[in-house]
Amino acid sequence: MNRRTHRRAAVLGSPIAHSLSPALHRAAYTALGLTGWSYDRFELTEDGLPGFLGGLGPEWAGLSLTMPLKRAVVPLLDGIGETAAAVEAVNTVVLGPDGHRRGENTDVPGMVAALRERGVDRVPAAAVLGAGATASSAIAALAQLCDGEVTAYVRGPERAAEMRGWGERLGVPVTTAPWDEAARALGAPLVIATTPAGSTDPLAAAVPPRPGILFDVLYEPWPTPLAAAWSARGGRVLGGLDLLVHQAVLQVEAMTGRAPAPLAEMRAAGEAALAARPV
Fold first, then answer.
1. Is 70 in the active site?
2. If you ran DSSP here, which 8-state letter would residue 185 be given?
3. CA 108/CA 83 separation, integer angstroms
4. Is residue 143 helix, strand or coil?
5. For position 215, what pLDDT does the model report?
6. pLDDT band for position 3 (50/70/90)?
7. Within 13 A of 93's CA, how many CA atoms are on the CB side?
8. What's the CA gap between 101 and 251, in Å, rounded?
9. Beta bridge partner(s), residue 192
10. Exposed end of the chain (fewer CB within 10 Å): N or C?
């Protein structure tokens, strides 16, 4: 396989060893018959990002970005898509043959697609647990799905101000509440949990008798205590794998120029990769 026919892509971030993206993208390449494509992972922090980007050759087609790089990459790009600009977060870099770097955000449309796949087209109100890049993506997704108010439960007044700012910017009525009142969030018709592993574990005991819909963006460990308690009470649950697969579908299409990407094969690959991990 020579340099001109070999196309490369990868996921970057820190920590990155747990990422399922290689399994998803490689499954897509196989299903699409893209034998000259490879997809890797690289442990990388903000400090190493400029040098990494500067060292990429013409064989590179794209990059997936996870934390802490989604915002750090923005000033290093030649262009940025509308959604990425709206939330100031890039999780996808499409690399042109001339080295042009365009940033996109597939988290927002991926979240919308995951919810719609489960029959969630509109909700009267919603709650978001946490702040940060994923939370701002959640607000942007709710701009397309939520008819009423969104309440964000956050730690500290600075985070609260940021979330209200995202609401104003994205056209969503956002109110904020302190994290120590997060149990109140569980009564919302749709709850989107965007916090790190362990953060919502204490809330599992507060799940109401008839919960609505929970979208917990974690996929490992899974189910989270909150997701398990939610399911036990009959509520609908979406997990991080739902989001990961739907946003990866859009990444594959953007990087390869082939559509539609094979959603079913990618989901099966993600499920198999998770099942193979030690408990």
1. yes
2. G
3. 8
4. helix
5. 98
6. very low
7. 29
8. 14
9. 128, 215
10. C
